[in-house]
Amino acid sequence: MPNESSRRSRDPHRAREKANYDSPIASREYLLELIAAEQVPMPQEQLEEVLGYRDDDAREALRRRLQAMVRDGQLFRNRRGGYLSFDHMDLVKGRVQSHPDGFGFVRPEGGGNDVFLPAREMRTVMDGDRVAAKISARDGGRAEGALIAVLERAHETLVGRYHRESGIDFVVADDKRLVHDVLLNRDVGHAAEPGDIVLVRVTEYPSQHSQPVGVIERVLGREHSPGIEVTIALNAHQIPHHWGEDLLESIASIDDKVRPDDKRDRVDLRELPFVTIDGADARDFDDAVYCEARAGGFRLYVAIADVAHYVQIGSPLDAEAQRRGTSVYFPSEVVPMLPEVLSNGLCSLNPEVDRLCLVCRMDVDDDGAIGRFEFFEGLIHSQARLIYDDVAGLLFDGDKPGKGPITRVADDLRSLERVYRALAKARRRRHAIEFETREVTFRFNAQRKIESIQPYARNEAHLLIEECMIAANICAARFLKKRKLPALYRIHEGANPDKLPNLIEFLASFGIPLGAGNPTPRDFAEVVAAARERPESDMIQTVVLRSLLQASYSPNPKVGHFGLALDDYAHFTSPIRRYPDLLVHRAIKHWLRHESQAGYAYDFAQMTQLGESCSLYERRAEDATRDAADWLKCEYLQKHVGDQFEGLVTGVTSFGLFVQLNDLMIDGLVHVTALKRDYYQFDAAHHRLVGERSGREYRLGDRLRVEVIGVDMEARKIDFDLVTDIGGARDIKPQRRKKKKNRRQR
User: Fold this and answer.
1) Backbone dihedral angles phi then psi of residue 412, each to the nearest 5 degrees
2) Same domain? 369 vs 404
3) Which of 5, 162, 304, 619 has the largest CB neighbor count within 10 A?
């Protein structure tokens, strides 16, 4: 048998281990190689013998490393203590997605079709857990799995409502995907009262024969406590929202003014009339724009706050920004990615003060094509803080400038209007998909309780800024792609192939064609344009949007952005609130200073990992804000039980109609039993309910008047009663009913 030194010398990562540890042991890669080569379960004792480990310290270090590899999903340990490589077990690793009816799925990490988990397999896991499963059966095209191991638990804590029934204390999770009630440990006291919303730490996870057990860590509030919707969302989705002491100490010396030394070696643009254009309630301004007309086109400047100057790689501030990934915008407040001293101070392009920027200067022709462009570190002095409504009034509605800062920059704004029209022309030429989804805003009273919900309309000033930002993002992607620097691109792969057949069928029911095969952005753009003139436009656009894959972050520059019909796209314009933008800034600044990849802080593997985490944190923020908005909508309608509203059928199921109220954008259910006296059959192919006797038909897009009859805050469910149809609900052709009658007579 080879001796210890010869075995260790074969480890390809031996030098790295020696550099990192005083008493190095075999690297993870080498352990995987040894275990895979054995092709049978390999106990720790056998590994110790192969590696020549004879002292207790080495054996303990090996035990800990093997345990960590099991935890991280690199190895599996069987009941006899033998270690196996997952790559040689034909297993699927992925996250559990649970269903309220008890069954679930594993979403494979490497992509591909979900693996079905029957209810018996779901007893030991919770939604979001990372697991390894073995394919146990196939039912047609669907694979069914059996759980082999839980690799990582998704929930150390959860948010729910405390109950006490028949002497048993338990918590029902607020997230309805968490179907297990958590029993409370009777030996640990708490101050909660039944009905309180609490944060529970899970101490025992579910097994085949027992429910999860936990202890209440904190009482978050009562159902109607001011701001409870945000408190629930933050804790349920485990969003970081407190600044640590180390971080606060590291930024304590930050001044509110740009230091003279920081202004050196920058392009001085303080004489140019840059402006910021944002919403009336915006508090951080990360982009400023200026445009000048030139022969045959325009020179457009997009200046973005130089966050990378203040957030140094590896600092406590950087670590926290990376941990958050994005700012989270709730209806009533914002949880920022960066502390306010930066997000609302030095990194906010406030008017009438000097600010450090990373600037994209680009030449745009009259047809909206971007020609020469360049990036540089700049210094600006914003001339005005403008809001969308005022700019739209001046440029697109024919209003006079009136008073205030807009009067000083009115002529410059007209150049911005012209470059916007050119860029919009190019957007239409490449057939980008132009969704016109509706939004709402929430109004609160002095006690932070919801007072009203109002529709929010984007105007052309929003689109003006959006086109300028897209242009700068295109340039950033092209800049990085040419220089082959690892960075994050904003990618969008197009339609979800699993949803495409249903989408084609759905659109056909409205007479809107979408060819089979691989639809292009142009195909989708034409569908959205065709739907725009229909009363069901919002609903059709929502269905189309849900059929597309979700955009994400990746260092792969070849994917492009399907929705925008662009080959090159990166997020450059919001480093105050998005970590991927900060990474793009760091890459650009590195090249500007070194004109080389040498010394760059990131490699492709690191950037891949950052892309995955940033995409995950983005989805986490979206889920949290949606949950908070749903809570507020339910709370609002509690005050309107018995009131009637008009709405649109946005979903049809075997148990009823989902109706979205006009303007309020609130969804509720008209149960099938609330329809006119009849037995209704569900026609899934045509998204409709059809009465057996009457032939009455209800389908997607129908307009109804409904009455609010119940709101369940705990389940986030709203029930409607049907008052009358306004337009759409119809009888099936009389001759079909007549034929049925004749058959019965015979």
Assistant:
1) -65, -35
2) yes
3) 304
